[in-house]
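### Sample
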Amino acid sequence: MTPGHAHGAWAGLRLQGRGCVLTPHAEAGSRVWCPGVGCRRLIRVELSRGQTVVRDVRTRMFHLRTCAAKLRPLTASQTVKTFSQNRPAAARTLGQIRCFTTPVAAEPFLSGTSSNYVEEMYYAWLENPKSVHKSWDIFFRNTNAGAPPGTAYQSPLPLSPGSLSAMARAQPLVAAQPNVDKLVEDHLAVQSLIRAYQIRGHHVAQLDPLGILDADLDSSVPADIISSTDKLGFYGLDESDLDKVFHLPTTTFIGGQESALPLREIIRRLEMAYCQHIGVEFMFINDLEQCQWIRQKFETPGIMQFTNEEKRTLLARLVRSTRFEDFLQRKWSSEKRFGLEGCEVLIPALKTIIDKSSENGVDYVIMGMPHRGRLNVLANVIRKELEQIFCQFDSKLEAADEGSGDVKYHLGMYHRRINRVTDRNITLSLVANPSHLEAADPVVMGKTKAEQFYCGDTEGKKVMSILLHGDAAFAGQGIVYETFHLSDLPSYTTHGTVHVVVNNQIGFTTDPRMARSSPYPTDVARVVNAPIFHVNSDDPEAVMYVCKVAAEWRSTFHKDVVVDLVCYRRNGHNEMDEPMFTQPLMYKQIRKQKPVLQKYAELLVSQGVVNQPEYEEEISKYDKICEEAFTRSKDEKILHIKHWLDSPWPGFFTLDGQPRSMTCPSTGLTEDILTHIGNVASSVPVENFTIHGGLSRILKTRGELVKNRTVDWALAEYMAFGSLLKEGIHIRLSGQDVERGTFSHRHHVLHDQNVDKKTCIPMNHLWPNQAPYTVCNSSLSEYGVLGFELGFAMASPNALVLWEAQFGDFHNTAQCIIDQFICPGQAKWVRQNGIVLLLPHGMEGMGPEHSSARPERFLQMCNDDPDVLPNLEEANFDINQLYDCNWVVVNCSTPGNFFHVLRRQILLPFRKPLIIFTPKSLLRHPEARTSFDEMLSGTHFQRVIPEDGLAAQNPENVKRLLFCTGKVYYDLTRERKARGMEEQVAITRIEQLSPFPFDLLLQEVQKYPNAELAWCQEEHKNQGYYDYVKPRLRTTINRAKPVWYAGRDPAAAPATGNKKTHLTELQRLLDTAFDLDAFKNFS
């Protein structure tokens, strides 16, 4: 194949024999011996022509030439000699060819994409000029003499019998043209210039609507345009090059239908694409297809065009956004509402994202946002009735007896309607949230994941999430980083979230330079390769285009994307705040700033899209809507929080939101079900699967337990889960190391020891038509993961969603989710949630960070009154207690009770969060076993487990009644037996701490009339349960007796780190518990 014929052969070339150098002279379809040095392989050349095919083949040829360059069969000595001796010459010659992009007649083989092939031919020629075709010999001799590639080639004569002799007589060019260096360097410079715009153009884009600040804080980036004339010299260009025509590389779309442009036009188009009101950050993305997609969306000439109808729709949405804030300001000028003034474009931006997503098949959008602009979003995006919003401003209205409620700018909403643009049904849900910024992010993600799961949306094509952020919080809150890192994990991905940052360039009173160290508030998104689109909010059409692209990106690649709305805040942090105290110059400029609605209306009037009367009519029409809603709001007599429910559960409650019953069926099971689940739990349900030898012993032990009709902790959990799956209840268990279990007791995921990543989940092989079981190791995060699971549990009441802490001590990293969502969620937002927290707890000498789940904190937040004895004669007292509490706190001492409380969580006719302090040492304690008899049909969860030994047989002889909870019971029984005090000391276990079992404890106290009462715990006195139990126990007995304390002394740390000290403390509390004279001096 000659240089002249190479371009025709490329289109259909196939190489048979890797590492071969192509023959320089071959006809179509011929089979020839490769003349490469040391190579004697047969290759075949197929010729095909056509521009479309050629483009496709060049990609294949690229891979082919790469292989040839790496695998060319030279000996070691040849390789060293060839590359060391000929590298300087090769660099000079091949450097010209690699960068040659300007088309020259009859030399398409000189394209830079063929450089590896040409390099192979060149090294063969250097070793033996006769080993290559004569045309290659002439070409390389001319090039070495200094001729440009475009003139070094001489076309061979037609391949006739006499042509070879003519070819042999061909001579090199007499005069070589040395100007190739400048040509190549200029093209390289232009490519570097284009790349500079793509990488750094956003730094100089005109993003600040106020025109006084840079959107980024990177002081090393020049403030002027990258390619100003005085900077062309950096690229080796000067003003004389501006009108030269340069071939455009394939990594840009600025040419449109043109493949070459003058430098001046190249710069102008790059300026228009990257340095106006849109700044695009994307060149850190590693995926070439994604980068090309973004380039095409922003570089193609004329791509950002809007029809007149689209412009009128945009104007109407801006009118609604602006006039809504104006109406609130007129009616309630002294009320906090955290208005949207300065970023009114947010409303049409969100509606554009929703419209485009709906067009692409999405029918459910779940949103989360902070307080700024929330009422406007509720009114004009979610479409909450305006009168319901206006009612929230009426201080005279009495709240319904549905909870404590929340301020109006924290409330959520759920609404299903027709999208007027796409004429498709769309469901919108705005999740209620606290003032803790960004805390709702993982909650929204979890709810989105759940909705996708329940509708079988495995690719995120039907359900999506939109998260709104403030600039200071997006950069400052660590939960943002945690949430981003969940975005692509298999059990947590929602297949892309659209993030919209309301970047008003201030955080309350803090300037950006004091609020972050990164150039942009959005830089955290770079960790997951999410493209970031910065846009000037005073250019509504640019905002709409960016939002449209963001929605298309999400539907195309199913990955996160960020829209950075660079705007300003017209008022202070709230309507009562004075911003001039801290930002005087900024707010002087804001006072002069013309509102975006006025700017855009004037633009459309000047373009003839609308006229002034039409614009004014649109304003008066919306003002009338607001006034009429305001009039209707005066008819409201009471505020209902239930009108703001963000996650309804259709069919679970009655129409007025009440439970369908106030009873709970038995949580026990038939023996057949228990046995079947136990057999599956102790076996491998798939064939050809090799498990670890240690795990084989564990499964064998489980099998023996089943034969003996007994369960340990792991088996009890297995039976609770397996039985619920049979009843169609989805179970999701999440947390760090939950698949195996922190303490290697669970083993819900089996790993094949011979095949990498081959796993088996026996729980999913229990029943033919069971619900799915999801068990997933989480990222090393508590805050983000617990928030995610809380959101997952919001979606449906017919699922058991559990989060397990690696150790209970670590839950306080997620304290915000516990304090702001789980504990008060129903009271604030009338939203029930059945999430379960499994918190390993127990003082076992493992130090201060591996001992305590801080039960005192959970108990402190329980909403019952310690000084009021409830009506113990009330029907269904225990169920009513559960219904009235804010959460349930238990500390089970037996596997059977653990089994029952898990099943009760689903069988109850309502949902409450469940906090379980789970054991560590009891997982393998020989006495921590439960018989099948205590788990059969008719059995139930025991709130209190009374004494059942010798003391219970002669209660009048009992001198001390010890109350305790959890693991310490086994220490007490061991000590009691060792001291021979089974008849003198009774021990009662409180399994459910909240709501407090007043009724059952009263029965226990009355049973032992001569006994003094003491609470025993292994925790320190200022921690644990004592401060919670003592006043309630005293109320139970009408303060007839004191309640003594047997336990560790008060301490700052939860536990000692010294093993000897731990054992000494334990023995001291046991001595106190069984010394019948211990409290005489305190009487």
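The first helix runs from residue 6 to 10. This sample (2-oxoglutarate dehydrogenase complex component E1) is used throughout the tutorial notebook.
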